[in-house]
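Good morning C.,

I know you're traveling, so I'll keep this short. The sequence:
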Amino acid sequence: MVQSNLAFLTLKGFFAFGLFLCALFSSFAASAQQAAPSLPLLFDARERLARPDLSSLVRLRFLTSVDFPPFNFTDQNGKLSGFNVDLAREICSELEISDKCQIQALPFADLRDALAASQGDAIIAGLAVTPELRRQFVFSRPYLMLPARFVRNLAVPLDGKTAAALSSHPVGVVRGTVHEAMLAAFFPAIKAQPFDTKDALLAALKDRKVDAAFADALQLSFWVSSPASAKCCALFDGPYLSEHFLGEGMTIMLRQKDSVLTSAIDHALATLSRNGRLQEIYLRYFPYGLY
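The tokens, ready to paste straight into the viewer:
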């Protein structure tokens, strides 16, 4: 399976994580939205992307999966939900083609072949952009980046508010991940302590076996706000973005022949970024913020 290389959760982990998120959203989203940081703009405010004529478009079929929460998942009522699902609907609304818009969920492994066989028009499911895929498909502009973040144990005194304050402290990281490589490249003065799994890393942080951890912001932001952390910890410094380590970001994949539709989606994404609708969707599914 070629899943997005931004979040680094296993399929089983994503499913369990999704059930947790569904419950978490219903309890805390309203209050958290008031304090969550803003979503960084990925489109230049001065840039104007033309809106192509889609009057001849018969329909726009988005393909997604149900195993990548909080981006795509089936909610407690059996309804297809998630950040990507809501974004797809908002794109159709912005392009004034809601009556022609469809969203279909398939097994993740089948998405690429389904798009190539014209069984859909666009994949919005967290596919990582790779050179191989770029030879066969085209991608929209990125609409979301998932950064890396530090999280610290609040019981540990730190001499400063930046990553430099961690140079004399053990910092945990999951072994063999891009976050381990990114930590070594960005912060060579920090002493990294590797763990085999995310759960082992977070347990060590909670028990003060390490003073901080470096990992995916998506996982960390929900963990520090969940009962599992027992309020031991908080996000610290950052966010940190790197195309080299974390990829190009969340994009929409289309067939190469669909350049007009790609341009239309880029136009919609730019508009939603500027008018605040993308921010609203972001806060709906990331109430504690990633940045």
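Safe travels,
E.
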